[in-house]
Every structure is written in C-alpha cells, then in structure tokens.
Design brief:
It is a multi-pass membrane protein. This protein has 510 residues and is mainly alpha-helical. 57% of the residues lie in helices and 6% in strands. It folds into 3 domains: 67 residues, no CATH class; 247 residues, no CATH class; 143 residues, abc type-2 transporter like fold (3-Layer(aba) Sandwich), CATH 3.40.1710. It has 18 helices and 6 strands. A 4-stranded mixed beta sheet has the order 4-3-5-6, with helices on both faces. Strand 1 and strand 2 form a beta hairpin.
Length: 510
C-alpha cells in the first residue's frame, strides 16, 4: 500500500524501533501511533518495550476507574479471560510458584556460579578466617651470645645441675634459654652470630626477623634477681635482661617472635625456680590472675589473643546477610534490565508476587547456608557453648534483613552498574564498621552509633557472641535488642518498597 511494508508482531517490540512508524495495540485498543523515537522521548523511556508497558499500565488504570463510574465505552473486541483471575488472591501462589520455578531453573543452569557465590563462598571464608595466624611465614631469628658457650650446641652447657642457695652462682643461662627456644620452635631456627654488627646487617636485609643479644653477665644478673636483688648492683640487674631488636614492619613474624621470646624465657625461669624449691607462680608476668569466669559461660575458654574466633563469628554473621545480596541483586537486576519480569508483569504477575518468589527462595537458601556454615564451624573449629538453635535463628533473621535491603536497592537503581556499585560500597562499609577489621567496641566513637543504626548485622554479631561466650538465652538483653531492631529494619524496608511499587509506571521503572 503506497510502497509501505506493514509488519504485525506480538513479541519483537524492540526490533520495531527500526521502523518509520509504529503502532502499539493491546486488547483490541490502539494505544499509540507515532515514530518510535518520538514515543520514547514522549514517555521518558529508554526502550520501546518500556513505552508499551507504561501504556499498558495506563490502560489498566483507565479501565478500572471508568468501570467504577459506569462510563466505560469499550473498543475491545475480546475480553481478557485472565484479568480478573490474575488480580485475585487465589492467583498469588501460582504466580509465585512460577517465579520460584524460574529461579530454581536458573540455579540449575548456572550451578557452578550459584555454588561459588553461595555455599562455596561461605565455606571458604570460614576456613580462611579460622586458619589465619595459625601458621606463619618461614622465620629465622639471630642471636648474639656474649656469655661463654657461643652457639650453644654443646648439651653440657644447658643440661648441668642448677645450683641453689642464697649465694648460688648460675652459668650459661643464655644457652638454657636458647635450648628452650629451639625445643619450642623447631620450625623457627636460631642462627648464631659472633658479632652484633653482622646480625644487625642481616636483619636489615630481612634475612632474619629479629636479633637477640644475651649480655656477658646475663647469668649473674639472673642470680642477683633471685638471691639478693635488694642489695645488688643496678648494672648487674640491668644485665639480666635480653636485648631484642625486631623488624616491626613484618607484623606477623614479629608478633610470633615476641610471644615465643616471652614464653621461652618464662619456661627457663620456672625451671630455675622449680629446681631450687620456689613456687613457680613467682615467674608469672605480670603478677596478676585474670579471671573471666564471672563474665562468660561455664566451660567457655577464650584466649584473649585469639582474634580468629572473634573474626570468624563476625564473618559468619556477615555472610548470612551478604550471600543473599550477592545472589539477589545481580539476578533480579539483570532480569529487570532485560525485560524478563516486565513481560511477566504484563502477563498479570504482580511485582509483589515477583518479590515474594525471591524472598521465599532466599529464606530457604539462607536456612541451608546457615546450617552449612555452623556445621563446618562447629565441626572443625569451635565447639558450641551456647544454644545452637538460637544462633541459627539470629543468623536467619539477619539473612532476612539482607534480602529486604537487596530488594530496596533493586527498586532504587536503574541498571546493573548502579546495583553492583552499591553492593561494592556496602561490602566495604560492612567490613569497615561492623567488627571485621577491628572490634566494634574499639570503633571510633562517632562511627559506632552509625554502625548500629545502618547495619543490622552489628547487633546480630554482638548477640551471636553473647550466645556463644555468655551462653545467653532468647530473653537476654543483647539477643532481644538485636531481634527487635532487625525486625524493625525489615518492616521499614518493606514499607519503603511498598511505597515505591505503588508509584511505579512499570517494572523496569522501579
């Protein structure tokens, strides 16, 4: 007709953008007719499909309002038999079930990706956090022994009988200390240097991690401390100490060296005391007894320097929230941008049902993921001290808060780039302010309230530690506070999502 080619299609809406003129029709009603680019500009859309969805939504609103006033004049050549059913409460579960089936199908088709982003990530993080600081880089320590004995290879230098008495004189205690070190740390050898300058030269070239210098009258100084410290020469007392120089730029190795130096010296000191009939508690340094049994539960033993326990529990808490976001944000954002759910919405599936399907799937996923994390953690690293079911409940409540946050981000972002950017910023902030890098108790005071208000996993982490360390019950202050705040967090996000959905023009415009 006049050299025009007319193509009628029901699926390839976006491809019609190449035409000179496009007409959009639904249910027998002509919704719009104009050049494609003019329609896109008129409706402030990015795609022709989005224009069509806005027109469909507007048509539905007009039909509902005109039907109520009995003024509706229909141009419809047929009545959609599924419209009434699709809006009825009885259609919620079939629609939700269809969304669930779609998600499960995606997981099956992308099984390696799903496992990596979910259970694999959780297990790897738990193992990593618990294994850190349990091993250290190959380390060599140098020592300079100004006492007789040199490199202390002769067993007679440290296996001799220890003299006792008020004026007993000790010999070669430096070699006894070196022998204790070598017995405690076979994987951290000590290298003898005859000159202090040579040892420091190798230390500055990082060939050795630390240099220990044993004074010439070290043994006499120890004797003075034990026997007649009150009247001893101050210089003699000063020479009963070992000089240590460590490369503090290497935190891991330096920390290990410092701990082992103290432990080896105390072990040697206790041997002297035991041989002479002294109470070994005299060697306790500092001279105090730290008791924590009034603050933690029965049979709970926590090494105050074991930071791995603290970090691991925070990681488990964070993963309960983060894994949901890692799965939901990219999945739903990509489907939103590609128009998959827009077509579902056009077919009668409401946005509420789309979100409900994802919520049900992720709640089930969180339950399985939490069970896997706790099983791995309690089997290999930490014997549970509190109620496991309460820990399981806390972590799943946190998972629900992560789901609602993810849905809110989906509603607020326009594309996958914005969604991913938010996720990256959220992960960095979560690691910085919720107890992963340093304890929340030590956070800069102005940041601490922000950590509790913005991130629900801060309170959940504190409650989780209370369950394990203090054997707290469900009515414990920290547990109740974390649950109440988390549910408030979930309800607040749900209310904001509901308001955004009510103002929508289409799914892709959320």
């Amino acid at each position: 007709m006049d050299g025009r080619t007319i193509i009628i299609t029901t699926h390839y809406i976006e491809e019609a953008r190449q035409a000179n003129m496009v007409a959009l029709m639904r249910q027998g009603v002509l919704l719009a007719e104009a050049p494609p680019e003019d329609l896109i500009k008129q409706y402030h859309a990015t795609t022709l499909e989005d224009v069509f969805l806005q027109l469909c939504y507007k048509q539905n609103q007009n039909q509902d309002s005109q039907a109520d006033n009995n003024h509706y004049i229909s141009k419809i050549v047929f009545k959609n038999p599924y419209k009434d059913k699709s809006q009825h409460i009885s259609a919620v579960w079939p629609h939700t079930q269809a969304i669930l089936y779609k998600i499960i199908t995606w997981c099956k088709r992308n099984f390696p990706v799903f496992i990596t982003l979910s259970f694999g990530l959780s297990i790897m993080c738990i193992v990593f956090c618990n294994e850190m600081m349990t091993d250290f880089p190959p380390t060599t320590v140098g020592f300079v022994n100004h006492e007789s004995g040199g490199n202390c290879d002769d067993p007679n230098l440290y296996n001799m009988t220890i003299p006792c008495g008020r004026y007993a004189e000790y010999e070669n205690l430096g070699c006894r200390f070196i022998n204790n070190w070598r017995n405690r740390n076979p994987k951290m050898p000590m290298v003898y240097y005859s000159k202090y300058e040579d040892a420091m030269y190798d230390g500055k070239r990082t060939k050795i991690a630390a240099v220990l210098e044993i004074p010439e009258i070290f043994s006499q100084g120890i004797s003075a401390r034990l026997s007649h410290g009150r009247n001893a020469d101050p210089d003699l007392i000063g020479n009963s100490s070992i000089n240590v120089w460590g490369d503090t730029t290497d935190y891991m190795r330096t920390l290990k060296v410092e701990v082992e130096i103290q432990a080896s010296f105390i072990e040697m000191y206790r041997t002297l005391l035991t041989s002479c009939g002294y109470d070994t508690r005299v060697a306790d340094m500092p001279p105090m007894r730290i008791k924590t049994n009034l603050f933690i539960g029965e049979d709970v033993v926590v090494d105050m320097f074991d930071y791995t326990v603290y970090v691991a529990m925070n990681i488990i808490s964070g993963l309960a929230c983060l894994c949901s976001a890692l799965l939901l944000m990219p999945l739903l954002s990509v489907d939103k941008m590609s128009g998959v759910y827009a077509r579902c919405h056009l077919a009668g599936v409401r946005i509420f049902e789309i979100f409900l399907g994802h919520i049900i799937f992720l709640i089930g996923y969180n339950m399985v993921n939490t069970a896997v994390m706790l099983t791995v953690y309690h089997t290999f690293y930490w014997k549970p001290k509190g109620k496991v079911w309460l820990s399981f409940l806390l972590l799943n409540v946190e998972g629900l808060s992560g789901i609602m946050l993810s849905l809110l981000v989906i509603c607020l972002t326009d594309n996958i780039t914005q969604c991913t950017s938010f996720l990256i910023v959220y992960i960095i902030a979560m690691f910085s302010f919720t107890g992963y890098i340093w304890p929340t108790e030590a956070v800069w005071p102005p940041i601490k309230p922000l950590s509790h208000l913005v991130f629900p996993n801060t309170r959940i982490s504190e409650a989780y530690r209370a369950v394990e360390f203090k054997q707290a019950g469900i009515l414990h202050k920290e547990v109740v506070g974390s649950l109440v705040y988390s549910f408030f967090y979930v309800l607040l996000h749900a209310a904001v999502i509901w308001l955004l959905i009510r103002k929508k023009t289409s799914f892709s415009s959320l």
